Give the backbone structure.
Amino acid sequence: MPIPWHHTITTQPRIAGFLDRLASAPPRSLLLEGGTVEERLALGLFWAARLMCPEAKPPCGECRICLQLADDACRDLFLLNGAEGSISIDTIREVRAVLGDPPAGRGPRVVILAEAQALGDGAANALLKSLEEPRPGNVFVLLAPSREILLPTLVSRSFVLTLGWPRSAQDDPDLRDWTVALGEFIQSGKGAWLEWTGRKGNVDARLADAILREVQRSLVQAGYGNPLTDLARLLAARLDVVAVRQVGVVVENALESLEVGANPAVVLEWTAMRMWNLLHK
Ligand SMILES: [Zn+2]
């Protein structure tokens, strides 16, 4: 099978380079946000391989350890994938039970929580305990679309890296028009938004995905207190921390609906209505 990170280190070279340098002093918990689901997982595995591969230039992508990691067959890797269903408290307890044992290989044990927003509250709190009482030889990686949809205490204990986003309104006038219309709609309930989403065949899944990711990007900026786009400024001005997180969940649900084939125009309309509600409650 192909090494999962080979492609992603070419689409996210900045993050790959950063992880390479970070490996000399790995943070106990690393949070990778932004990018796509595939890119986050690939970079999580790249990070594990960077820490475990014994070759002179790790990760070599060819040795036994690298191949095992690529195949999720390495004893020192725990890959809990929220994309495959919610991550239960029992699963976290099973992981916690082995953290006191030394790792099998020369590197640390790496626990990847992919799509960590799938952690239930109980599981997230159990995980938090592990982050608070560190045992040497264990490294955690949280992967999520954006930090706003995670428990803030998990985020505050993690070193956060933000992947480049797939398509940005800054260099795409069409996308910028859509986000302006969205901003107008969630403020006033008026404007071109519903007219555009309602026009037959006007919205395909790719466009809807790009618009939703632009909203995610704006949420991250609003959450940072560093709003760069008009939409981010609007969200920062109108939403408190809790509401920012709620909008994050709404957008995440919308992206999931798109992935399972929901009508893109309906998904966008529903998302805008929910955002309008959160702004006006
Ligand atoms: Zn290797």
Q: What stands out?
A: The mean pLDDT is 91. The pocket of zinc ion is lined by residues 53, 55, 58-60, 62-63, 65-66 (CB under 6 Å). The first strand starts at residue 29 and ends at 34.
